[in-house]
Amino acid sequence: MVQRNTELSRRQLLASGAAVSAAAVAGCIGGGDGDGDAFHFTQEQSREDQFDPVVSNDVYSYQVINNVFDGLYEFGEDLELQPKLATGEPTVEREGTRYIFEIEEAAEFHNGDDVTASDVAYSFTAPVEEETENAAEYDMIESTEVIDDYQLQVDLGEEPYGPFELQTMGVTVVPESVRSEDPEAFNRDPVGSGPFTFETLEGDYVEIARWDDYWDDLDPNLDRVRFVAHDDPAGRVSDIRAENTDVIAGIPNDDWDVLENEQGVNLHSAESATYMYMAFNCNEGPTTSPEVRRAIAHSFSMQDFIESNAANVTSPMYSPIPPVVNEVWGFPEDEYQELLPGYDPDEAQSLLDEHAPDDFEPTIITPEGIRAQLAERIATRLDEIGYGADVQQLDFSTLVDTYTTGNADDYNMYLLGWSGGPDPDFYLYSLFHESQEELNQGHFYEGSDGFHEGLAQARNMADQEARYEIYEPIIREVVQQLPALPAFTQDNTMASRDYVQDLQAHPDSIYNPTFVSDYANVSIE
């Protein structure tokens, strides 16, 4: 089996906050009504301000990118993959190792050049050839062949790649001639084929403008959109209440009721494809014992924690597969819920008394925010049964350097989050396959016979039903053996002024917001 290495991705591994503080939105609002002012969208965190899709790897830059560029395919409102620059589904040959795509002949870039098969081929191969952080999403491609201007053949090698259709086919397409001439300039002033053109990059904001000659049938209602980074939750809430912005992303749980009762404000929410979890060190120390892991899971109530700390902006999870992804695949989530340890402090104490050292006080490392609150809740409940925990809140870079060591002196448990798409491989291979130890995971879970082989085998199969049959017992094992305890999935939340029409939250953060699509076209009343 081919085992490909998936490097750490900022778009997948969810940090708790941005490194750079950004100023609040101020000034006139209400674009799209002809008065020349931009529509203001206040982002949840700071961007890296990399707008070249070949290079960019953070959610908040991609929120801009997805309005300036079109993908070969794109995710709809229910995470269904839809053709965009492609005319339809690809022709699949050679037992799932060859894909032939047909490109829309009407599609154009903002500079007037046609979107061609060569541009799509370049977009597939450039991340690997340039060794960017996105290389792992495309390194299964062995070769591309331009059949003609509007037909492209992509070969994957000797074996299929299971996640190809739901992960890789959605490539964001860039113009080869423009980008290859000066990649650095392209990164700061990109040319796409999407409904908006890139206009302005200033210190704290990016502005895009409606492309009146957009090749697709969709015509954006908004004239201009200004993206302003603002990583202070209280500041974002103040801005929307004071009408200093049109929309904010990322509503704090404690402010949900405030905004829900605020006159002139509407709330928007969608379950996201995220997996928040507490992982156990299965490499060293007492948490190598599944009985100790079960004891800790019994010691507190995840449901009570969610209800008291995050009920407005999260949803419970019962497996490593987010509910919105589970809807696509149909795994028996109700059965997994029954398998998870329920709140039972007596059972927790009994298991720890039998299987843990007398002085057991696990070290929990965590980023700030809600995951730190969860760590403190666990420590409190363990203390109530005579044990306790040492909670260490680390900055994100330190946390990443620490949790991958597998050293029990560094941690016994850690809390993190993962964001992906609608394919189980995003969550299962990256977070549980042995090749990802010291990269994307620090639990070092040995697994049962065939556990790791199954993950690799499913990755190299094209048939979804066959992959399901491999994944289901693997998910069941994770739920029962608890190398990682599912916590919750975060919701993508927004608040808008009530004059904003047709705004919808999308389950994928990088598509949130989508200003123009076949299911929504945002406008000002």
TrEMBL record:
Q: Which InterPro entries match?
A: Peptide/Ni-bd (IPR030678), SBP_5 (IPR039424), SBP_5_dom (IPR000914), TAT_signal (IPR006311)
State the Pfam families in the record. SBP_bac_5 (PF00496)
GO CC field: ATP-binding cassette (ABC) transporter complex; periplasmic space
Q: Name one GO biological process term.
A: peptide transport
Keyword Signal assigned? yes
Q: Name one GO molecular function term.
A: peptide transmembrane transporter activity
Which segments constitute the Solute-binding protein family domain?
80-436
Kindly state which keywords UniProt assigns to this record, in alphabetical order. Signal, Transport
Q: Which family does it belong to?
A: Belongs to the bacterial solute-binding protein 5 family.
Provide the protein name. Answer: Family 5 extracellular solute-binding protein
Q: Which organism is it from?
A: Haloterrigena salina JCM 13891
The beginning of the lineage is: Archaea, Methanobacteriati, Methanobacteriota, Stenosarchaea group, Halobacteria
